[in-house]
Amino acid sequence: MSDPDQRSSAATNTSPALIKQSLRLWLKMLKTTKHVEATIREKLRIEFDTTLPRFDVMAALYRFEEGLKMSELSSALRVSNGNVTGIIERLVADGAVLRVPVAGDKRAMLVRLTHKGREEFSRMAAAHELWINAIFGCLTPDATARLISILDTIEHSQGLVTGEENDA
Amino acid sequence: MSDPDQRSSAATNTSPALIKQSLRLWLKMLKTTKHVEATIREKLRIEFDTTLPRFDVMAALYRFEEGLKMSELSSALRVSNGNVTGIIERLVADGAVLRVPVAGDKRAMLVRLTHKGREEFSRMAAAHELWINAIFGCLTPDATARLISILDTIEHSQGLVTGEENDA
Lengths: 168, 168
Known about the structure:
Helix content of chain A is about 60%, strand content about 10%. By secondary structure, chain A is mostly helical.
């Protein structure tokens, strides 16, 4: 649940100055996020010759070692959608993903990472962690924790919490 | 300049737990940003039958009342790019944007909002401010200020500061 000291009644936040401050916060958050995302896209391209949508698909499959139905994969993708079907076709062609039948359901197929796919993703994920740390490591642990707590407050107030809070 | 208490030497932030914490922060920030952006897209569509890229183009032109060259417009767009040329064509067809010659340069044209375009954008911007306030108004002014300050620290450390910090 959200930290009470980060909540306030709607009435206190409707002055024009505070509305402008909310807008300033949002534009800054959007700018920072877009820049970090662009940095990650660029590094994935240069260091692994890959794309963010492909990375996101592999991240989702990595979390579900048994595999996912295509519909489950689409809903597990928290970040970018891209063309999931096209990405899976490429991953299959590259030997990183296998299609496997579902026991007891002749028509359903699961997609899951092969051993090669898991190894490929592990290498990218390790590099990704270091890139993220290079960016957010400028914050003290306390500032990081405060930022997480403030984002939690926003998530809860927006009903964005899904219960599925695993990290990639 | 960044708040010294939010900075730390790289050496303190390389423990696996802190790297995971940075990753958690980034995934949370990305998720919150994507959800807010999706909310704004949806509201623009429902309430104004318009798109986020069109809103962003109009926001940039609104800030530069004298008009912009197409190249200036593209670099002024901080948020989404979309197909800027296509968006301008539509805005011209809708009477919201005018193309005007540049004094002393026969080949150059500026694009600028018409009176109708400025009024249309004003209405959308006022609604946009209220949507943002409905989301971020759950934070106390102090939490908002802290979040802005932490984002500033990240911006400075990333060299994201451009000097052009006007709000839309």
